[in-house]
Amino acid sequence: RQMSSRPPTGDYRGAFDEPVIPLQLRLVAPLSVMWGSLITIWPVILTAPLLPPFGLMLLLAWRLRRHDAIPIWGPLGLGLFDDLFSGQPLGSAMVLWTLCFFSIDVIERRLMFRDFWQDWLVAAGGIATCLVLGRLIASPFGSHVDTLLLVQILVSILLYPAAASVVGWLD
């Protein structure tokens, strides 16, 4: 067998190269998460903070549906965008969303097969963890927001299938 001295053409992909992701998917996933983060600035009058974190829910739905839609460093920029528009302390969503991504990677390596119920359970754990840790970062320990936080977690978990169906429609 004779070796060629020419470099491989542009369409050559090695076994360990990252898969080619279409430009549309590269834009749709992050833009939909950013759109979800912007929903919280909609002028809705509530007496308590009950709006779920739509950006986080869409991020988790994208991660659980297509692991290659958003790169592993994506939650940093998307979390920064969410922090700027949600009013949370700068960097909290960046750290918490990235930890959620890492946790999902660990869970995916352990589970061989997943269905929607397991995805819902994983997303529920991620949502609850981010909301509880975000509360610990953003508000003092003496504030009495724990009951409202539990209601917000419950509403967010119950609305996750809607976020997953939006991601399925966009995909």
Element layout with pairings:
Blueprint: H1 23-38, H2 54-65, H3 74-86, H4 92-110, H5 116-138, H6 146-170
Helix pairs in contact: 1-2, 1-3, 2-4, 2-5, 2-6, 3-4, 4-5, 5-6
Sequence of secondary-structure elements = HHHHHH
Instruction: Quickly count the helices.
Output: 6
Structure classification: mainly alpha
Low-confidence stretches: none
Instruction: Output the radius of gyration.
Output: 19 Å
Distance between the termini: 44 Å
Question: Quick one: how many beta strands?
Answer: 0
**Helix proportion range:** 55-70%
Please state the average pLDDT score.
Answer: 86
Percent strand? under 5%
Shape: globular
Can you put this structure into words, describing what you see?
With 171 residues, this protein is an all-alpha fold. It is 63% helix and 0% strand. It is built from six helices and no strands. Helix 1 runs antiparallel to helix 2 (54-65) and helix 1 runs parallel beside helix 3 (74-86). The radius of gyration is 19 Å and the shape is globular. The model has no long low-confidence stretch (mean pLDDT 86).
